[in-house]
Amino acid sequence: MKLNTLKPAEGSVKGKKRIGRGQGSGKGGTSTRGHNGAKSRSGYSRKKGFEGGQMPLQRRVPKFGFTSPNKIEFKAINLSTLEELVSKTKAKSIDIALIVENGLAGKNDLIKILGNGELKSKVDVTAHAFSASAAKAIEAAGGKATTL
Asked: Of 46, 47, 86, 116, which one is least surrounded by beta carbons within 10 A?
């Protein structure tokens, strides 16, 4: 037996149904698409969420909730992350430029320092906001927390 002589068993592979090839084929005329309607037309594709003309779910369910236009979104950075940054860069002071440079925040982000973790190094930190526990921990380690 050779690989180039292998064939499927007799009758196990059916031929492709050729529709729309004239009346003589028995699959001409409407080409198995039924009579009128969108699905019988060429180029038809159903829109996402279409329910056959019934009012779709996303339009039946009411909107709710509120997004405040005055909400200030901060990028949160923990003390444990600052400790890693200090051990990596050996910096005496951490400002926004250093945080952005090391990929901890984007250049347009507002940065808030949170008190999760432990800060052992004496380091001066400059950020847009501090939690009370973070400011206390930075000053306990001998550093200074400066708010912009």
From this structure: 47
pLDDT, tens digit (0-9, with 9 covering 90-100), for 47-91:
999 998 899 999 999 999 999 999 999 999 999 999 998 888 888
SS3 82: helix
pTM: 0.56
Closest to 81 (Cα-Cα) out of 115, 109, 106: 115
- Which residue do the tokens 């860069």 mark? 89
Dihedral angle sign, alpha carbons of residues 131, 139, 124, 148: positive
Of the candidates 91, 90, 82, 146, which has an alpha carbon nearest to the alpha carbon of residue 119? 82
Q: What angle do CA 72, 76, 79 make, to 5 degrees?
A: 145
